[in-house]
Amino acid sequence: MTITTPITIDDATPVSESWRRQGLLTAVAIVLILALFARDTVDIASIWWNSSTFGHCLLIPPILAWLVWQRWPDLLALVPCGWAWGLVPVAGGALGWLLGDAAGVALARHLGLVLMLQGAVIALLGPKVARALAFPIFYMIFMVPFGEELVPPLQTITAKMCMVLLDLVGIPARIEGVFITTPNGYFEVAEACSGVNFLIAMIAYGALAANLCFMNWRRRLPFMLLCVLVPILANGIRAWGTIYISELTSISFAESFDHVVYGWVFFAIVMAIVMGISWPLFDRSNDTCWFDSERLIEPMREQRYPYALPAAVVAMVAAPLLWSAAIAATGRTSMPSGISLPEVAGWQRVQLSTRYPWFPHFVGADHRLIGRYRNAAGDEVDLAILLFAYQEEGKELVGYGQGAVDPASDWAWTATAVAPSGGIAERIVAPGPVTREVVSFYRVGGTLTGSATRVKLETLKSRLIGGDQAGVAVLVSAEEGVARSARPAIDAFLTSLGPVDRFADDIAASARGG
């Protein structure tokens, strides 16, 4: 443990002037970056306010201010100055934002914005001050709303934990994807039950506590591991407990119990468990300094061009906005014409299912079509066509919530299936249970694929260098019967439909009036 003594500075005036100038430049740069990227700033704040998963992010800005305030007396002993190498993270953030904007990936844009803010602080305050503020600068990363990609695997983990625990207490159960059937009911480990909100909040809390309570990395790392494992295990136990209580009492009572336990009360219990386990290992005392001032202090250096670096920061953060605006209008085509479902040889149109209607979820599509077809053998399939004139945030082929399953419907994803050439296949289930198989194809940039990553890359390419930004999604689905699979009917329909890439191109051409 290193204990430092307060440093007395005989002539504090030059340092005060340096802090006033560089501090003001840093504040102006931060405000300017937030203003230039106002759309993303508002998006991030809106996610914090409206999403229960990221409600804890509202506490991050005041926590950052508190962390700086803790270090402020010792910071005054340092001399802030411009540092050219600090422009590297600014440039990295600007590039990340541009790639995210081109590909329609909000996470990349938000991460790029925060990285630009971090870089601006480092570039304008210099390496010594940045070293003293290393943790607050790092902690800014938790302002980025990230982690929803963990929902599907966490749902699966929670469901499998429930099955193990149900088996231990002797309750017979059957699992299909995230659906669990017991003698007393039919349960879904829904997205809200995945525990992702508590896991993300616990990681953010754990990083803060690791800095405040520990000095040794050999103690910090096991503590962070606890912050990851305990919320996952606790959420699995909570989900199992709800099912178990429903077996002992009733489903309605179990639901009311879960509503009482689930929420911030549950998170407080998880926090108490983690802190209780770790309490004996805390090794930071109240009088320990946050950084070694004596090692970081240096003589005052006159900057020949004090406003060159701020100008460079502004130029770097403005560059991706200008490039995006210049390319945005290219490759976009209007689609005023209507389109209609195709006639498929050997198949005729019939009414859609009314038992559990299925509609894929593609927000922002310019055209949406869905219809059911039946052949002479009695096989029935549903064909859905989604057409985008161009893609941007909130108007994209692939993204969170986009795809074969509408999050607001009774359908839920259960498993992947054998993928067709150029596509992807998955199984979805509705209460009953009713099972469907869905094959999906995406046509963008002259490429037919079922890969979300490939769609993003093709979209990124067209929006960075210009090109046709139109996108088409073609989905074919069928319900499974008691003794028959859905796949033969889907394959038969695809054979009659012909090459999907040519079909998608014809649909796009007809919408343009071509």
Automatic annotation (TrEMBL):
Keywords from the named record: Cell membrane, Hydrolase, Membrane, Protease, Transmembrane, Transmembrane helix
GO terms, molecular function: peptidase activity
Enzyme Commission designation: 3.4.22.-
Enzyme class: hydrolase
A cellular component term, taken from the record's GO annotations: plasma membrane
InterPro entries per the UniProt record, alphabetical: EpsH-like (IPR013426), Exo/Archaeosortase_dom (IPR026392), Exosortase (IPR019127), Exosortase-1 (IPR017540), Methanolan_biosynth_EpsI (IPR014263)
Record domain Methanolan biosynthesis EpsI: where: 313-500
Membrane protein topology class: Multi-pass membrane protein
Top-level division of the source organism's lineage: Bacteria
Subcellular location per the Swiss-Prot or TrEMBL entry: Cell membrane
Transmembrane parts of this sequence: 19-38, 47-69, 75-99, 106-126, 132-151, 194-214, 221-241, 261-282, 305-326
Example GO biological process: proteolysis
Pfam families on file: DUF3485 (PF11984), Exosortase_EpsH (PF09721)
UniProt key word Plastid: no
The protein's name in its UniProt record: Exosortase A
Organism: Sphingomonas cavernae
Gene name in the database record: xrtA
